[in-house]
Fold:
Amino acid sequence: MSDTPNWERQLLEKLATAALVEQRRARQWKIFFRLAWLMIIGVIVVSLFMRHEDKTGSGLAGGSGHSAVIKLDGVISSDNDSGEKLVEALDQAFRDRNTKGIIIEANSPGGSPVLSGMVYDEIRRLKKLHPPTPVYVVVSEVCASGCYYIAAAADKIFVDKASIVGSIGVLSDGFGFTGAMDKLGIERRLKTAGENKAMGDPFSPVNPKHEAIRQQLLDDIHQQFIQAVRDGRGKRLQNDPQMFSGMVWLGEKAIPLGLADGLGTVPSVARDVIKADKTVDYTQQDDFSSRVARRIGVQFAGGVKSLFNTELF
Structure:
């Protein structure tokens, strides 16, 4: 027992004081985090507002007509939101009353058939809503497969003589490891409920029935692609047996085949076709809010992986 008088009371006072200090610190941290989140939300709101003003007001500030430019660059994939960004940019360009024409500057090897078809349909829908505003595609290096799927919805396609155009086909890739498993003595113990659930499994032997189903899926997607090109290009397409075989052509060869309409660049199309030299870039970039979300966002649920990758490459 301590010799200090009233030591119990002093100990209780110290403990109470420490508890009060700890509560005060907890409140301070809570206030700090609340303020930090409010600042982050405020910056996101401001960045979204500024982004909206830049896109909707950029053409209005000059008071004269302009050519809207939208870049389609890289693989068309949900990973980079390329389809969503392209549709958003198209919508904003069409809604700007000073847009005299839209140029999609394309440089893409293709990608998702779903996203390509969605953008194709959206271009045709927007064109019906805004008939005075033409849409042109200008190909820089490559406009193949899914990219050409999208381009077929435009009023005209312009290329460089050395551009790569075409690849109207569908592929599905994968690997088989059964031979290596046999050599290594590895046994595959796979159980399924549903006879086609394991279709495309790389660790199981090839199943002729599954391969037939897989081929039918590819053929159906290919027919959708072909029909979209026929609807978009119409009578301009020549009757070439290689047209829908997945073949690619240089720009100067694509023109007589009807896959392209002429040689051109973004400045020349803006100047000579749209008759509006001034260009305004409507390409959607990742704003601050998107970058913050990519850095601090948490993936709450993962999607089920597809049985096999299907691309318009």
Residues 78 and 115 are 8 Å apart (CA to CA). Strands lie at 66-73, 99-108, 135-144, 156-159, 164-166, 171-173, 248-250, 262-263, 279-281, 309-311.
